[in-house]
Amino acid sequence: MEKYHWLQIPFILAAVNVVMVNATDSVAYWITLPQNFTVFAGDALTLTCEVGNSSGVAIRWFRKDFSTSLSDNLGDIYENLYEVTSTDFGQSNLTIKTASRNDNTTFICSHIRANPQHQRAYVNVIIPFDSAEITTQGHNKFSCDATRGNPGAIRMLWKIDGVEVSSADPWSIETDDGNYTSSSICEIDHGIHRNDVTLTCHIIQSDQVKSMIASFTLKASHAGANRVGAPVIQMPVIAVMVIVATIL
Fold first, then answer.
1. Distance between CA atoms of 60 and 70, rounded to whole angstroms?
2. Which of 110, 116, 215, 229 is the most exposed place for a label (fewest CB within 10 A)?
3. How far lies 87's CA from each of 48, 50, 56, 106, 180, in Å?
4. Which residues pair with 158 in a beta bridge?
5. Coil, helix or strand for 130?
6. Fold matches, 29-126 and 131-225
């Protein structure tokens, strides 16, 4: 009598996520969203958005609150400021040719079909400061003031003969003309310097390579000779004054 042996082979069930795509589904969707951008005044920048299933979809760019369409006929006011280019596969680019204070606002990319969708990007335009100056605010205190600019994220580094001695986040005050003045205070112990030294204030805007430097020379007589405990020689000066008086 023949015997039969059943061979048991384990059955493994793999869980697989299957996304069913309807080829006729015409719902447009975002592939690339416009990103926030920080730029210095005078530089150019390009904002990009991209839409999938873009056949028959109108992609438009607007300024803040849809007040100005940049995708239609721009007219004389905007044609030299902006340029919109599009591709056949749903990508649209808005180029700001020369960023200015007026571009410090929100830009909107919209794709329009049955259900319009909007994505916003904020452009932060940094206005470099016109000038910077270090002034004395007392025996050991100095102020660095940068004027007529839009600071953005700003840092001020204090250095003595190129060696950093202080770093500060300055405060900024808006002026009547729409610009800002940014200031920082540094306290220096004059008594440690017996020779002339150079105090500099480095203004760095938005961690960019563009920066401004203000300098101030601390004279030895100011920095060291008049410190507490240092000898102050006054007699020769008095003697000269007496001699002059005698001659006259």
1. 7
2. 229
3. 11, 9, 13, 23, 41
4. 166, 201
5. coil
6. yes
Could you tell me the two tokens for 98?
């020369």
Phi, psi of 244 (to 5 degrees): -60, -40
Range list of H helices, 110-230: 220
- Domain ranges across the chain: 29-126, 131-225
Amino acid (1-letter code) at residue 15: A
pLDDT exceeds 60 at position 88:
yes
Residues 86, 50: Cα–Cα separation, whole Å: 9
Looking at residue 247, its amino acid is I
Across the strands, what pairs with 160?
163, 199
Structure-token pair, residue 59? 């992609």
The three-state secondary structure class of 216 is strand
For residue 90, what are its two tokens? Answer: 């749903």
Task: Give, as one character, the DSSP assignment of residue 227.
Answer: S
Contact 214, 183 (CB under 8 A): no
Per-residue pLDDT band at 49 (split at 50, 70, 90): very high
Classify 131-225 by CATH class. Answer: mainly beta
- Position 215 confidence tier, pLDDT thresholds 50, 70, 90: very high
